Amino acid sequence: MGGSQRQNEEKGTVSMTKQTTAAADLCLMVKRDVCKVFAVSEATIDRWLRSDPDFPQPRRLGPNSIRWIKSEVMAYMLSLPRVAYDDHAFDPNAAEAADEDAGAGLCGSGNH
Fold first, then answer.
1. What's the pLDDT band for 41 if we cut at 50, 70, 90?
2. Measured between alpha carbons, how far is 81 from 39 in angstroms, rounded to an integer?
3. Which terminus of the chain, N or C, has less C-beta within 10 A?
4. Within-domain flag for 54
């Protein structure tokens, strides 16, 4: 194999690697997948598209085909504010204990 042919093959490998990386960055999502990411209905996605200018806009692939770019959807989701949970008095174990006590009263202990 000649030196110039080897250089061309190495350049081809580099180009394919760049193309593969670019393609991986452009994963597309259908509306159903976007709904799953946010755990909402399609109607909610439609409402967000109309009312929230920051919500990622889909790309039109054809007359009846739109797709979202996954990295844009994920970036938007990660940009949403976290909710501070301030109810430190809440004890989830106390709720379970109360449920068990209430259940014992419903089933009875044989004292009818």
1. very high
2. 17
3. C
4. yes
Residue whose C-alpha is closest to residue 31's, from 61, 2, 64, 67:
67
**Structure tokens, 16:** 């394919």
**Cα–Cα distance measured from residue 94 to residue 99, given in angstroms and rounded to the nearest whole number:** 9
pTM for the full predicted model: 0.56
Residue 56 falls inside a structural domain: yes
Which residues sit opposite 59 in a β-bridge?
Answer: 67
Q: For the packed helices 31-38 and 70-79, what is the interaxial angle rounded to 10 degrees?
A: 20
Tally of domains in the chain: 1
One-letter amino acid at 92 equals P
- Taking alpha carbons only, the member of 65, 57, 72, 62 closest to residue 26 is 72
3-state secondary structure of 68: strand
Give the helix ranges, DSSP H, for 1-112. Answer: 3-25, 31-38, 42-51, 70-79, 92-107
